[in-house]
Amino acid sequence: MGFLFEKLEVYQRAVSWAETIETLCETVAKGNYPLANQLRRAALSISLNIAEGSGRWHPKDKKQFYLIARGSAYECVPILDLLHRKKLIDDPVYENFKNEVDVIARMLTKLVQNVEK
Questions:
Q1: Percentage of residues in the chain with pLDDT exceeding 70?
Q2: Distance (Å, rounded) from C-alpha 18 to C-alpha 16?
Q3: Residue 63 banded pLDDT, cuts 50, 70, 90
Q4: Rounded-to-integer distance, Cα 8 and Cα 27, Å
Q5: Residue ranges making up the domain that contains 108
Q6: How many domains are there within the chain?
Q7: pLDDT tens, 16-58?
Q8: What is the distance between the alpha carbons of residues 75 and 45, in angstroms, rounded to a whole number?
Q9: CA-CA distance, 75 to 47, in Å (whole number)?
Q10: What's the rounded Cα separation, in Å, for the pair 65 and 117?
Q11: What is the DSSP string of 9-31?
């Protein structure tokens, strides 16, 4: 059957995005391991917290994990900025990654708002 959170579009996008980030990190990790590692962990944390929040019974607990997922999405932005400034990712790649994490963050905001209702 599967878990209900697996049907959420935000979860599916977060997993796909983490996979894409993983591929990016494989190329930029050389000499930039701390940045790549932190980006990898923050990207993965988004889907992990969606899953964990979905498994919580009380709405306040759900909301807290969804907010943590949103915070992880925001955490990725300055790392992407640094990679871009260091010329490790070019403009189109940078914009693509930022746009996708922005969409995920907005979806998480709506998920939090739905828990509040």
A1: 99
A2: 5
A3: very high
A4: 30
A5: 4-116
A6: 1
A7: 999 999 999 998 877 788 999 999 999 999 999 999 999 999 9
A8: 10
A9: 14
A10: 16
A11: HHHHHHHHHHHHHHHHHHHH-TT
Structure tokens at 106: 């907005």
- 70: tokens are 């949103």
C-alpha distances in Å from residue 38, one per residue of 6, 34, 97: 25, 6, 15
The domain that holds 84 is classified in CATH as 1.20.1440.60
Residue listed under structure tokens 């909301």 = 63
One-letter amino acid for residue 81 of the chain: D
Contact 42, 74 (CB under 8 A): no
| Of 46, 54, 53, 39, the residue nearest 94 (C-alpha) | 39
Report DSSP letters for 43-60, one per residue.
Answer: HHHHHHHHHHHHT-SSHH
Q: The tokens of 41 are what?
A: 């962990």
